[in-house]
Automatic annotation (TrEMBL):
The lineage of its organism: Archaea, Methanobacteriati, Methanobacteriota, Stenosarchaea group, Methanomicrobia. SUPFAM superfamilies: MOP-like (SSF50331). Keywords: Molybdenum. Pfam families: TOBE. This is TOBE domain-containing protein. InterPro entries: Mo/tungstate-bd_C_term_dom (IPR008995), Mop_domain (IPR004606), Transp-assoc_OB_typ1 (IPR005116). Gene3D superfamilies: 2.40.50.100.
Length: 69
């Protein structure tokens, strides 16, 4: 699959916390960090997401903010 999004971060699912409608998916990135995505419970099911599965965190945004202390 090819996507127009430039930010495609490979990783492995570390945890899935399922709620009534949505699920929080924690992805351990290859570089050592983590990223969390909130998606629908239905998407978790239809993608067959499970802990340990290799996935991509795909970030498509027109704006990225940078902050410092």
């Amino acid at each position: 699959m090819k996507l127009s999004a430039r930010n495609q971060l490979p990783g492995t699912i570390k945890a899935i916390n399922v709620g009534v409608v949505t699920a929080e998916v924690v992805i351990a990135l290859s570089g050592g960090g983590e990223i969390v995505s909130v998606i629908t419970k239905k998407s978790v099911e239809s993608l067959g997401l499970t802990v340990g599965k290799k996935v991509y965190a795909v970030i498509k945004s027109t704006e990225v903010m940078v902050a410092i202390d």
